[in-house]
Amino acid sequence: MINEVYTQTKEGMDKSLEALKRDYTTLRTGKVSTSILDNIKIDYYGTPTALGQVATILAPDATTINISPWEKNLVKDIEHAIAQANIGVNPNNNGESVQLFFPPMTVEQRQESAKGAKAMTDNAKVAIRNIRKTANDKIKKLTKDKEINEDESKQAQDEIQKITDSYVTKADETFKAKEAEILKV
Question: How would DSSP label each residue in the chain?
């Protein structure tokens, strides 16, 4: 029973770290990433559709993204959706594709991006602590239902705290690596 709680706790905390890494992909670093467009949807025959499902998105170099729609009539819709998404650049339409030219990041932009990463990391740590609370509540319920004794309960809660501490440390390490990547010129 206690081992099941440990396993569920670790799985939940792993998912929090994975979500944090996914969130990081939406941040701009020195090199542009096509994932900056992940949240952009266009109206595809009346259905909001992810940009990646109607076009090929490539980053040929560190400051350019090229979007080639599979249907040429979508170029205007893509251009409009990107303009409305306010990602920091204006789309350039050549009739067949849309290009985004990102200027090199300024020091201020890098610092803002690092602040965004810090906020995402803090959210992940809150999620990890919420998982700890849920696990501790399960242990307390087992104690209340007389399935484990007080000593086992105390040991289990200590172990859950150790697991939590290790995942908070992992989140901090992930942030430090991302911050170094963002601030590197």
Answer: -HHHHHHHHHHHHHHHHHHHHHHHTTS--SS--GGGGTT-EEEETTEEEEGGGTEEEEEEETTEEEEEESSGGGHHHHHHHHHHHT-SS--EE-SS-EEEEPPPPPHHHHHHHHHHHHHHHHHHHHHHHHHHHHHHHHHHHHHHTTSS-HHHHHHHHHHHHHHHHHHHHHHHHHHHHHHHHHH--
Burial of 112 (0-12, 13-18, 19+ CB in 10 A): middle
- Residue 180 CB burial class (10 angstroms; 0-12, 13-18, ≥19): exposed
The first and second tokens of residue 22, run together, are 């996914």
Confidence of residue 161 (pLDDT cuts 50, 70, 90): very high
For residue 83, the model assigns a pLDDT of: 87
Domains belonging to the chain, first-starting first, are 2-25+106-183 (1.10.132.20), 34-101 (3.30.1360.40)
Q: State mean pLDDT over 7-16.
A: 95
Please compute the mean of the pLDDT values over residues 136-148 and round it to a whole number.
91
Q: Which of 130, 43, 121 lies closest to 80, judged by CA?
A: 43
